[in-house]
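Many introductory courses stop at the sequence. We go one step further.
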Amino acid sequence: MGRDNLKVILMLFLLLWIPLSCDNEGERQTYIRLQQWDNQLGKYPETIADSLRKLDPRRLSPANRAYHGLLKTIVDDKTYTEFTSDSLISGVVRYYTKHRPGTDGHIRSLIYQSVVRYRMNITDSTVLLPLKKAEKMFSLQQKGDPSIAYLLNFFLGSIHEKNSNFTIAAEYRQKALQCAKVEKNPAHIFDSYLALFWNSLKLENLDRGKAYLDTLDAISPKSVDEDYFLLNAQSVYYATQKLYDKALEKEKEQLGLVPLMKEKPDIFRMYYSIAEQYRYLGRLDSAMLYALKSIEHIPDSNYELNYLLYENVADIAEEQGDYKTANNYRREAALVHDKTIAKQKDIHILQLEKQYNHSEAENKALRAEAHARIAIIVILCLIILLILSAIYIQKKNNRVKFEKMEMEKEMRKNKQQQFTMSIYNRMLTQFFLIEKELGALANKERRLKPDFADFIEQLLKSMSKNLIDGFARDISGKKFEELTGISLPDDINKSELLMFFLICCGVTNSDMAIILRTSVASIRSRKNQLKNKLKESGINTSFFERVKTPSS
């Protein structure tokens, strides 16, 4: 009897063990398959997307489900899928945070959590924080994967660039380029150089940007999409150099690549840009032809900037002397603009209605529970209101009087600062007028009266030196704060103080170079160093953006 019971127990154990072992083997095979797809993501994202859709994540183990969610997010990014929610990748991050912290999967999930939010046009700190966490985790690895390091630095550069931190963005772009070279990934190398080119334009370093363009042009072979993006960059560069014929040539080459591209660009934008180049070249008939084509190829009638296409046609017609057509298209631009505003209002109202309906449903569910509390809350509120009213009445007059005095004091201070700065500005402006007139006189008399020309140039140098010495002697940190309202750090030196004062006065780079007896390039470099130094001290550097002239 005992032997029969033992046989039954063994049979039951075998029946239970066989399905468990099969499940473990199945999950292991699924993990191997997911790894194989992961290795092919860069080359065949569309194919991998189809394969992932055939796999039901609800039937997977938690580990494989998280891996599947990570791969799906990456594939959606590579196939330009529109993201409407970050719930999938956030679930993946939660799994890795709890079960596999600090692993490559955890770091990649944090990177793509930021990427998804970035693609959703979220602008708060929730975009940057996951990347900073990933950066800290990656730094703790002894030998990190260079492809992960590339992604991390590239997207950190993108986010800083979006927030106009172009110098910091350039540092991350350079790190991404070095990682791409280590992993020997041609696509990543191309993207890094292209990103560095755009960053150079933002930093107004066109020479460096041209060097990056030349490097990109030398890369071979390139995909159709990469050729398109290179042509676009070349077109923009030539436009900055006012070489509109070359810019036009590159844009027409772009147009020929559109049918072969994976990611289709907006044709109407290309036609608009070509029309602009023709317009700069004075070929108004061709400009009008492409301007009209840009309107014909508008993909979304509700796009908020469509009216600019109609205004472009109106501007070209006006230059052609066809004022009737110009007026017609200006009216059309106004109608399109008004329609877009009305559409945006309708969408906003619909969203408010949905929010209201949702709130109303919640209120109905909570109303019964809230009735018992209302009476107590009302009584407490009345007592608090009486107390606050008494305090408020006592302090109201004193507070109003104090605020008024402070406001008047601040207004007087601001007016005094503005008046004083305007005097300095007029004084510097007058100096530059005199300097230019004397310089012109010296050039005029150079051939016939060289001694007189030398005397004038020596006089100019003496005037400039006296001006600098006078400012350096009179403008202290305390005096600067009185004039501008800006409190400077203790470690700022006399030369930096003088430069910041000239910037606040609205002096251009070229005029500043004359005053400080140096080159414009040196002024730009010193301004960037000063700007970074002030930023580190938490000082507003908006003064640096006020002067935008060709000479600066």
